[in-house]
Every structure is written in C-alpha cells, then in structure tokens.
Amino acid sequence: MSQQPDDPQLSGAPSVFAALIFYGAMLGVAWLLGVVWLDLNLLVWPEKLQGATAMHAALGAAVGLGAVVASRLVERYTAWGRNLGDAFAGMLGPMTPGQVQVLALTSGVAEEIFFRGFLQQAFSTAGWAGPYGDWVGLVLASVIFGLIHIGPERDTFRPWTYMALGLGAIFGLMYLYTGSVLAPVIAHITVNYFNLGHISRQALAEGEGLSPEDER
To answer: Are the C-beta atoms of residues 167 and 64 closer than 8 Å to each other?
Structure first.
C-alpha cells in the first residue's frame, strides 16, 4: 500500500520539530548579534525604507512566482535540472501539506531576517565597508547564503548552490530597494512552498512507480 501525502508517518521527510529548532536558533543569533549587540532593526532598514507595504508584498510575490516558473523550465528542459529534482525527491521524500507549509514559512522568515535583515545590513554599515557599503553587504550576504546551500553530492547539487547565490543577490537587491525584509521574505516563502510541494509530489510519484512525466 502506498503512502498518501497526508500520512503523518512519512519516512525520510524533513522533521518539522528539527526545522523549528534550527530556524529558531538562527533567529536567536540574529537577535543577539543584530539587535542587542549592533542595535539594528532586523525588519526594516530605516535609512533605505521606501514604498508601501502592499508594494513590498506584491514585489515579493512576483519575484517568487517568477523564480518558481524558472525552476520548472530548467527542470523540464535541462538534464542537470532533472537530476537535481530527482536528487531532492530522493533526499526529502514525500511530505505532508503541513510539513511543506511549516518548512516554507520558517525557512523563508528565518533565513531572510538572518541574511538580509542582519548580515547584509551589518556588513553594509560596518566601518570598513566605506562608500561602497551597500554593495559590500549585498555581495557578502549573498555569497554566504549560497555557500550554506551545498548538498551532500557536490556535482549533483552544485547548480542548487549557484541558484541560491543568484536568488540571494535578487533578494538582497529587493531589500536594498525597499528597505524592508517583507519582499524577500514573501519571495523566499513562495519559492520554498511551491518547490517543496513539487518535490513532495515527485517523490510520491516515484514511490508509486510513476515516471517524472506522469507526476508533472
């Protein structure tokens, strides 16, 4: 009997509890170093803040959906994209809708507050950054963001690292443009929500003996 997506006992699926602990710790570090030590506002960059909240949300949703469409095209038309999708399906396995939602929400919020609200702002305003501080912060935060996205099989997951580097730069530019983490947070949640759901369905289809084309 095959397991259904809403089965709470899905072997190999990411642990929601572990994710909450990990991303909670990430937010804790950002708060201690960013707020307590550096006196930063992790949600907005006051000197850069511009535009309405609705505009920030719309920008984030548009960029996120664009990234999702791009990832589907890459998977459909490139061998490395298909290999990457298969590797993620095999590594993460089927997930419940609740798991997908929690993982997308926690990762999107915690990572953007940490990498944009804390790291990018801290690097940009550091005394050594000088007149190019905005770009120093953008580049450093994006590179570190890309480097944490390294999979267990480097050849297979290397494109994921490059894509994370590129998306990190785009998220950083949105942060610079709006002065708020809202746009990158919504973009990040959107990307993770749709991609994790896609990976889960692909893993379930493979477990039932269907081809990737059947799942898509």
So the answer is: no
Residue 194 lies inside a defined structural domain of this protein: yes
Q: Give the tens place of pLDDT for each residue, 95-139.
A: 999 999 999 999 999 999 999 999 999 999 998 999 999 999 999
Look up the domain containing 40 and give its range. 16-215
Residue 64 counted as domain residue: yes
Does residue 11 lie in a domain region? no
List, in sequence order, the alpha helices (H) in 35-153: 53-77, 79-92, 97-112, 121-125, 133-147
Are the C-beta atoms of 118 and 198 separated by less than 8 Å?
Answer: no
pLDDT digits (tens, 9 = 90+) for 178-202: 999 999 999 999 999 999 999 999 9
Domain count, the chain: 1
- The answer to whether position 2 is within a domain reads no
Question: Does 70 score more than 60 pLDDT?
Answer: yes
DSSP assignment string, 9-60:
--TTPPPHHHHHHHHHHHHHHHIIIIIIIT---SSB-TTT--S-HHHHHHHH
